[in-house]
Specification:
single chain, mainly alpha, 2 domains, three-stranded mixed sheet, two-stranded antiparallel ribbon, 54% helix
Amino acid sequence: MCILYKEKYQKYRVMNYYKDVTILLNGLEYHQHKVFMANSLFFDKLFKSNPTNSYFELYLPITTEMFKIIIKILYSNGSYENELNKLPDSQMFELYNACYYLEIRRNFITKQKQKSHVRHKKLLGIIKKNCELVDDDDEIYNPCVYQINKRIGYLLTQTINKKNKLLFNNIVNNIIKLNCDSFSRDIKIYKIIMGFVKFNLNLDIKEPINRSLIEFIYRKRLDYFDDEVLIKESYRLFLCDLSNKLASYQEEFNDI
């Protein structure tokens, strides 16, 4: 149920044409399309388990501001980076938790076709002509992960100073605070280690010897694995302990 022309799409959204579900959250009503909202597995399961309902009063640990952003993501056909670029780090991780809770699909079930020059008098005609539904894909991907990796990658290109060190450590501290269940292994641990070496050891990560140190520390993460501990929790504990062990890792590496 995607619409090719954004301006036409926005016009019909405002007019509430063909919206088939109302969601009440935090005292506000949201009139939406089920097919777009089903790009979240949470809503997909909710609608399928209550097929005759068109009104849902929900109590979710999600603020109004974050829910409005999530609606934009679910309607975006996968193009939501401009929306995420605007968010400060604190809100990025708030959105991360909200997206985890709502189980955003990696591949949206709504897929936009590339071209159509046919004009339609009604939204329903636009939907049928310009869009198709793809097969359900239950794989979950947090939309914020790419943005987190992107911000870490950007900081790695910046000079070593207090401001950039603070920005880097703030991102890592937010990652550490994530619940282990919501921790994504798509978060690039290797780049985080590069940041620790750069900003906390004040080393040039372009130097081959420092690259070898980074590889050495990266292999050390395996020490945190345990048969009784989830892999995700193991990664989180490794990051949590890394700042304390950084100097000892460097000494150990130098002794090799």
